[in-house]
Automatic annotation (TrEMBL), chains A, B:
PANTHER family: FERRIC UPTAKE REGULATION PROTEIN, ZINC UPTAKE REGULATION PROTEIN. Pfam families: FUR (PF01475). It comes from the Bacteria. CDD domains: Fur_like. Belongs to the Fur family. This is Ferric uptake regulation protein. Binds 1 zinc ion per subunit. Binds 1 Mn(2+) or Fe(2+) ion per subunit. It comes from Halolactibacillus halophilus.
Length: 151, 151
DNA sequence: TGGTTATTGATAATCATTTACACTTGATAA
DNA sequence: TTATCAAGTGTAAATGATTATCAATAACCA
């Protein structure tokens, strides 16, 4: 954890931003809840536990900054809110998501499944791929089991 | 065009909705501007040319309805607005997008590039895929050329 | 025809996100 | 050390997309 904080601190410094206490508190929340896909509001409430005087606007500003630096990815699953997801350490690409249409849980696929597809896109469409977003919508394992039992 | 309107009319009837003049005007705009990725506001302005008395709320309601019936897909490229995209006739899956990070244009890939990837997801993650969203971010052909010339 | 229901348009309400602005902080130079 | 300055912050107000409300209208059916 501390190691990753250090890393992010350096990334900020490289662009001449500081890791202020508010920013650090926000990053810590993101690290602690790495598996979740938190909204700005969620993050705000969690950061408030560590740093009660923080303002919502600061959280938004921090998330925006982290987003620009590609430390987090801003995602949107179609409900009205943006969610923020830490990039895996050293990952060049955004990871994929499996969104269950029944229970709403979001699983992650860290492995990059798109290498072949990207090559195809670069060759056939002459489009130079820098990043991607891939989300599958469907039924997760648990809901499949529940459905089977119900029948 | 008329053929596709008929089709959509049937799809609505099948769920006991009607193709009102307002809904038809909205669908016509979507058909005419199929290549674009219009926001609700954009669509509203275009529909107003055909049916000046239409209200913005009706356009939203229509788009919501068409979305539920999977006649259109609601997409979000990260700017603050939802965009609406007609499904290609008979397409089981949402088509893919190439978003240029420099000029912002959005190209479409109709071909399904994900068949193999979906099989992998179903097998390895036991996730039953119903649909997907795939967007590539990068540099389009035109901007690549411009960049080369500039050097 | 009258009665019921779905649909609509205008408008107000909501809610996530941004902006404005005055205040704080922390670094730097005199 | 103290004055200065820019970056960063908190509060509150503003914005802008979307949704809800509600009275009026249109379509349908007995």
């Amino acid at each position: 954890m501390e190691h990753r904080i250090e890393r992010i601190k350096k990334q900020l410094h490289a662009e001449s931003y500081k890791l202020t206490p508010q920013r650090e508190a926000t990053v810590r929340v993101l690290l602690e809840r790495e598996e979740d896909h938190l909204s700005a509001e969620d993050i705000y409430l969690l950061v408030k536990e560590k740093a009660p005087e923080i303002g919502l606007a600061t959280v938004y500003r921090t998330l925006e900054l982290l987003s620009e630096l590609k430390i987090v990815d801003k995602i949107n699953f179609g409900d009205g809110v943006s969610r923020y997801d830490l990039r895996k350490e050293g990952a060049a690409h955004f990871h994929h998501h499996l969104v269950c249409m029944e229970c709403g849980t979001v699983e992650e696929i860290v492995e990059d499944l798109l290498e072949d597809v990207e090559k195809k896109v670069e060759n056939q469409w002459q489009f130079q791929v820098k990043d991607h977003r891939l989300t599958f919508h469907g039924i997760c394992r648990k809901c499949q089991q529940n459905n089977n039992e119900a029948n």
